[in-house]
Amino acid sequence: MSAGTAQPDAEAARHNEKPTLTPQSRPTHQDPAMSASSSSPTPTPSSYKNAPTRSVAVQGVNFAYRQLGPDDGVPLILLNHLSAVLDNWDPRGVDGLAARRRVITYDNRGVGASGGSTPDTVEAMARDTVLFIRALGFDQVDLLGLSMGGFIAQVIAAEEPDLVRKLLLAGTGPAGGPGIDKVASLTVQDMLKATLRRKDPKHYLFFTQTEGGQRAAREFLARLKERTDDRDKAISVPSFRAQLKAIKRWGRTAPQDLSRIQQPVLVANGESDRMVPSVNTIDLAARLPRGELEPLYPDAGHGGIFQHHDRFVPRALAFLER
Questions:
Q1: Which of 73, 146, 197, 198 sits at a 20 to 30 Å CA gap from 12?
Q2: By CB neighbour count within 10 A (0-12 exposed, 13-18 middle, 19+ buried), where does 270 fall?
């Protein structure tokens, strides 16, 4: 990870203030590539590994994003996990979803190539995500939230019900869910272990330690290296710390009323998730009024939707297209 410079406390406080999302206050700048006329369309990339990185201004701060798939229909916004940037999405999963859906990945405030400083609450991250979606000109979207991204997606669905049509929640859990407040300590421990053994921490955090789990880890990490040009910046140390603080707060928050989330929700995970224990997945599906539980993926952990992308992608598409 590369080091970064923390922003003044006053600026951080402004990020945690809830903006009023009136038409006048919504960002209006749009990437020129997205507003090109139909007579001169922007070429559609064939795969996530060569999708161009674009940016859109959100209250004067540039947010980095990539888009893949058809230019019509309800867009699917992908909300990333702890420490992740654009290059941490599995290209097999993105390509599979983008075969039939417009898929947009992005770096939230202060992450990767996006400007600003990263807030330290899930609620502030959710507000920034809403501003990003509005800046792209969308009035309705579907959300796929992975891990921390799933926390953010839950807040958006509850606070902005007209904006969200359907939800996909993977490797995530409800506020106050068992084990979520331990994510920070577990992550640091496994990062140290990985450093000593000269491995990527995802070998431990995202996959089981069985032969099959470690083979899946190697295959996944190889896929993440397929993109060789225009790669994203690694998350900075201050942003990583802010995310850890936000996750700990989410884990220590009192359980919330999930009946506020009235949208259809598909919930998925591996059966052996160490980061956000899989019991949270079952709990989410049971407590959400329109929740559906995808059978937990065998011999899989936190990265279950990456390891079993061949099962998750068709299930997700069928759910979104109903």
A1: 146
A2: buried
Rounded CA separation 57/27 (Å): 7
Among 124, 121, 68, 137, which Cα is nearest to 96's?
68
**pTM of the full predicted structure?**
0.86
Cβ atoms 129, 155 nearer than 8 A: no
CB 27 within 8 A of CB 58: yes
- Across the beta sheet with 61-68, the strand order is 54-58, 61-68, 103-106, 76-79, 141-146, 164-170, 265-268, 291-293
Determine the Cα–Cα distance for residues 220 and 110; give it in Å rounded to an integer.
26
Q: What are 201-246's pLDDT values in tens digits? A: 999 999 999 999 999 999 999 999 999 999 999 999 999 999 999 9
User: Is the separation of the CB atoms in 156 and 143 below 8 Å?
Assistant: yes
